[in-house]
């Protein structure tokens, strides 16, 4: 059974080992944590956020953070979403995010949860869509310059009404 727990610095080596190449690392970090390869010390930045690890059978299978983009808890923002590459495509990301949304809406009372995903990260985009995140049309597209390329972000959001629709699926 998949569960979430607060991130512990001792889990950094496992999480960082999932980024075997620059592209994979930048797709989930956007370079905000530093350049590839990232050090455990730089990754310590996540302790300033609400950081969670997803655990199944006492093994770390995923990681993500939440933060408040404003002073209140009306909106929470997911970031640094990553799943163990050996477990991708098996529903772990979807279940991890569902648990994160349950936490955001039921514990923190958030009205909405947002995130950004690079356009070139289609598997993550479709994972977010499968959880119920919707595209948000913005006046200006956020662009990152990664490895000499322009990477465009898609903004996505889900509102609290999600709970009434998906509650049964979380419990599975």
Overview of the structural elements:
- It is a single chain.
- This protein is α+β, with helices and mostly antiparallel strands.
- The chain is 31% helix and 31% strand.
- It has six helices and eight strands, in the order E-H-H-H-E-E-E-H-E-H-E-E-E-H.
- Strands 1, 2, 3, 4, 5, 6, 7 and 8 form an eight-stranded mixed sheet that branches.
- The longest helix is centred in the middle third of the chain and has 16 residues.
- The protein starts with a strand and ends with a helix.
- The mean pLDDT is 93.
List the helices and strands and how they pair.
Layout: E1 3-6, H1 12-17, H2 22-29, H3 40-43, E2 50-56, E3 59-67, E4 75-83, H4 92-107, E5 112-118, H5 122-131, E6 134-136, E7 143-146, E8 149-159, H6 162-171
Parallel strand pairs: 4-5
Antiparallel strand pairs: 1-2, 2-3, 3-4, 5-8, 6-8, 7-8
